[in-house]
Automatic annotation (TrEMBL):
Protein localization: Secreted
Protein name per UniProt: von Willebrand factor A domain-containing protein 7 Protein G7c
Lineage: Eukaryota, Metazoa, Chordata, Craniata, Vertebrata
Pfam families listed in its UniProt record: Ig_VWA7 (PF23619), VWA7_4 (PF23610), VWA7_N (PF25107), VWA_4 (PF25106)
Keywords per UniProt: Secreted, Signal
Record domain VWA7 Ig-like: where: 597-698
The keyword Protein transport is assigned to this record: no
Source taxon at top rank: Eukaryota
Coiled coil: none
Sequence ranges assigned to domain VWA7 N-terminal in this UniProt record: 82-190
Chain positions covered by the region annotation Disordered: 753-795
Amino acid sequence: MSQGRRGIWNGRGKQMHRLILAYLLLLASPCMSFLPNFWSRVLTLSWDSYTHQYITEQAIINVTMETLTCSKKQGNQAEDWTRLGRGFWRAVGEVVKSNAAMDFLSSTRSDPVYHFDSERVDSAMLMLRQFWAQTLLSVQAKEYQSARHSLGQLFHSLQDFYSHSNWVEMGQRSIYLHLLQPEKPAIPVAEGKCSHGGILDSSRHMGAKGGINKDSTSPLFSPHHYLHVEAATLATEATLTVLRDLRDTVGPKTFLRLFSMRQAPALVFVIDTTGSMFEEITAARLRAHSIIQSRAASTEQPGTYVLVPFHDPAVGPVYETDDPNQFMQHMENLMALGGGDEPEMCLSAIQLALTQSPPLSEIFVFTDASPKDFHLFDAVKALTLEKQSKVTFLLTKDPNYTTESRKRRRRKKRSREPLSPDRFSLYSALSSMSGGLTIFTTNSDIHKVSAIVEDNTASDKLRLNSGFIAPSGDSTVDFLYYFAAVTNDTHPGLARMEGSPIAGLSAFLVLAVTGLAPDEEASFSHVTLLGPEGEKFQEVRLKASSSSSSSSLYSVEELVGWVDSVPRAPFYVCLTGQDSRGNKLERVSTEMVQPTHVQIQVLSAPHLVPGHSTVVNFDILNHGPARLFNLTAGDDRGYLHSNGPHSFHVAEQRSFRAQVDLHIPATAQAGVTVTLTLTVRALDSQDSNYAVTYLSVVPLDLDMSPPSCFVAERQTTCPSACNDSTWTVSLVVSDRGHSGLSTLLLQKGEGILTSLHNPPPREDSLEEDQPSPKQQNVHKDKTRSGDQHQQIRIKKGDPPLNLSEWVLDSSEPLWLSYTSCCCSAQAELLIWDLAGNMKRCHIISSQQSQQENRSTEISGSGQIRLLGILLFGLLWSSLS
């Protein structure tokens, strides 16, 4: 681990760069972009600007609602809206956070490759395609958090292209397909120069003066502010296109799962399987079965089921499934065997459960032993808070018992060993801060007490000190929140605080209220910061953010409040408001906020390449007196060179720069995510904090080239009367990368697509083989024409064709033939390779092709003239 010390408040120094610009890209030193989030509108006084946050949120919501509408189980749209829930909004928040972080992280905010600046068009497009390939890789590996992270990065760069280039100034009113589809026509980079512009561009008085950025509607920040809406419209359309391509590639079900749409919280069981746990395992089976039955009747997706057994010294293996029946079968096979000593590897098992389960999970731990691996508590705490998961312990042990009672239950005779009565305190601390419970019971009562597992997952129970009550009203209203600080650097906005907030310092509190239907009215006035016993620490007044003023039907209500001084003691966040009838609404956060005086800021999150090493850099900031700290690092794959702890001294209001090294084995599977957990703790107090970073393993030779599709021959000319005639197009499909062809789907068109092993016969024999589109009995049947032309026929609505089952070598070209009635002149074919790259192949009849060619010739000549005028203007601007 390397290190370095510097002052927290010292500026990093603003470097002045003299860079020559290309016509498509801007000189931004430092880089700029669409404003990051809603607070940027306040800082720039541009209330009607489109931000990265707004564009991203609206695009995800729109495509999600499209997907729901097109699904077989269509429901009331308002009901779908209320069922988006916390899981959906947290997933959207992860994408938005990753998008905004490109403007805040020191490793990306001034790098032109991430923002389409400084003539780095080729590098920026390559990076954009890498983000796309990485997103697909993560989704295919079911690493949804990593997929959301790379998707947010992709959106940021993609949206910046329309804000930073003169694409809009060229008169373009459609998106630039070549950015993510290299086979599409590219516009050459010209030599005209122009600056980024605006008061935050330190180069605006140097070299290429002026500027064309369209980041906001403010003339102060954006010289071409009058084209901001046009740029934002194209950025929105490009974002929508990426999301629809992603949905078509991974399928609607996986797409909805990526955004945790209408999905119940994951049900996670962590079970001690030592010999004394027979009754507990039986109780866990019964409760799991009961929960699965209740979820079967729900309209929500069934969610994920995770089982983590532990048995000293072994932990795991993890069993994860979406199939409740398979999960119950695995639970039935669980057995209690062996074991002798009282402490067990419980925290290791919980840590494994947290890394393998999605955020907002419900984790239930069944054990009768205290933790042997107490050194992992800080890492487990960090993962619990970061994922906002709830951990509940069911302990069949009185804390005053000795090991003799446990060993008698295993029919083993050993000497009595007195144990500390507070040996379960770590369990209580973890459950308390996560919003769970710690329950002590006995073998005879475990079946009754385990009912808390079922009740805790239900939405219609409230827990009081004396028991449970059923509320008189039912509401889906909930909220998410985070603490943030203003950044006035090159990208003004609210930067989210990672880990716990800093005690004694001021901060913004940002809340997103979820579960409100479009026709449901509610107002929220304030939040109260409550201590562990319910004592009132501070009341924070709330104001609606500029995002909440959006006229969109599907905008979550976002509120912001100013916390004068973050309390020094742990606290809950209580949201207060009222509904349209004047009834009081209150919601309390499940997890407890743990204020601190130390902070970790991760500076880089590089990709991991099999067979290579990488470094993750971070700063530790001490907001308290000078003192010693311990740093511990951990990862769930064992790639870290050294876990620590590492001790170091940090002066008052100073920082400590360090790094950890990871060595990735050559056998590492591409697509998997490595969860890196960093925890720091002061040696003289309870001050501690954490950072959790997700690192993706990507192959060195990542395939980013989509398949190709070209027309080999068009046959038959359609007459003016289209009903009685057909047209045919022969196509050749091949993979341009090294993965091989995977699947194909007829997305649009009323004709029949025929897949052939060999080139199709001549026109006369081909027309004999092709049926009329009205003949429905040809639906996906296999025939043989002679001995050499095996065929598969597909129509719109058929599931994707698995080409690996059809062609002997997926790297070889595939011949296709499409025949349709002349009244249906267009079709669209989707083709994927094994890496997930997709090609949209547009098929048109001969007449349609001629019409489009004539239209292209006319509009193309005008575009060339316009391009010449713009290049002259930009060049003149740069020389003046």
